[in-house]
Specification:
This protein is mainly alpha-helical and about 375 residues long. Helix content is about 50%, strand content about 5%. Pfam families: CbiQ (PF02361).
Length: about 375
């Protein structure tokens, strides 16, 4: 700042422009120098006040063209901060137990032996790709009914909805994308009338089932889409049913029982079983850490509108780092607990007690008969249904 009547400096300001804060901070230069030759008290500011930089936040903008009316599709766009919605979605998705044992209510599957459940899992993985399309959708309906019967309501509503959505998207993508591209090479074979051959009578067979503009659903696309979608549904839902009704110790014991012959060919069965048991124990810890970290961010009521894009990304990076830090901390605690209990790295010497009931009852016999009937129906349907 300088005087209008003389050229002597009176008061000077230094702008601290190196900071990235919204409010521009200023500091006085000390000591203040006031010219003794100037008698005027009128001071003028010779510089310009810098404007604060515009802040950028994550959001979705939409513009409706036409007569100014609001388009219908705009109501489906997410409103508010996208980051907060993402964290709330993560916290809600992890609220239901995924891959965790549910002890109550006790159902028919809780009583069935774990070895029989593993045999069912193997059959449900193989049969969708080797059976008729009717059997594929029949297996999907069977697993859906079993999920509603066995799992609690808040669990099966969440799981069935997401698995069905994933399988439906996969079915549409493969159904309309497998055989929708037009052929690049056209057939040069002349029609039968020019070659003196009788024309073949028309039949009810049609290779194309449905056509929507450039997309078409053919028999090949239906076969590929149904196989992939049904296989995805059966894998996810059957594994969820098995993990929900079977403890990790029972699953480890069943797998060890099936892998006993592999010991004679040098397969480290004990290490595989111990790794499986630790992995099943660790699944619930991972889901809990992901949900707790997301809930911690949501509960702090962050004003996402006032954050820049880089600050929002920094919060996401901190969220991922916190998850991995907590997971590694739990892994270290598990390692220390195993060392305290006498584990020294040799799985063959360290004895693992599974505490599983190996009795074979009526429920197991019924399950085995049902499995044999399912395999027989799949073979018969492949031969009869065309």
């Amino acid at each position: 700042m300088s005087c209008k009547l003389c050229s002597s400096p009176t008061v000077s300001f230094l702008s601290d422009s190196g900071r990235t804060s919204i409010r521009q901070s200023f500091r006085y230069q000390v000591p203040f120098v006031i010219s003794p030759l100037c008698t005027s008290s009128r001071l003028s500011w010779s510089g310009k006040v810098p404007k604060p930089p515009k802040r950028r936040s994550l959001g979705i903008l939409a513009m409706a063209q036409g007569n100014g009316e609001r388009e219908k599709w705009l109501m489906w766009l997410p409103r508010g901060p996208v980051a907060e919605r993402v964290f709330r979605l993560i916290a809600g998705a992890m609220s239901s137990p995924v891959g965790q044992y549910v002890s109550s209510p006790v159902t028919f599957l809780h009583v069935v032996d774990s070895r029989v459940k593993l045999a069912w899992l193997l059959a449900l993985v193989v049969l969708p790709s080797r059976s008729h399309i009717v059997m594929r959708f029949g297996l999907v309906a069977f697993l859906a009914v079993m999920s509603v019967w066995v799992l609690p309501k808040d669990v099966w509503t969440d799981q069935l909805g997401r698995v069905t959505l994933l399988s439906g998207i996969l079915f549409l993508m493969l159904g309309f994308g497998s055989d929708s591209a037009p052929p690049l090479v056209q057939l040069r074979t002349p029609p039968p009338s020019l070659m003196g051959l009788p024309e073949l009578p028309l039949s009810g067979y049609s290779y194309s089932i449905l056509k929507l503009g450039p997309l078409q659903l053919t028999r090949k696309g239906l076969s590929v889409a149904s196989t992939s979608a049904c296989l995805s549904f059966t894998i996810f839902q059957s594994a969820s049913l098995c993990l929900t009704t079977t403890t990790p110790e029972q699953l480890a014991y069943a797998l060890q029982w099936f892998m006993i012959p592999l010991k004679f060919v040098g397969v480290p069965v004990a290490e595989i079983i111990l790794t499986l048991l630790l992995s099943l124990r660790f699944i619930s810890i991972v889901f809990d850490e992901v949900r707790n970290a997301a809930m911690a961010i949501v509960s702090r009521r962050i004003k996402w509108e006032q954050l820049t894009v880089m600050e929002t990304l920094d919060i996401f990076i901190m969220y991922v780092r916190r998850i991995f830090a907590n997971i590694f901390k739990h892994a270290e605690q598990i390692t220390q607990a195993m060392i305290v209990r006498g584990f020294r790295g040799d799985s063959n010497i360290h004895k693992i007690y599974f505490f599983s009931n190996t009795s074979f009852g009526i429920a197991d016999m019924i399950s085995l008969l049902g499995l044999l009937g399912l395999i027989g129906a799949s073979i018969v349907s492949e031969q009869i249904l065309v």
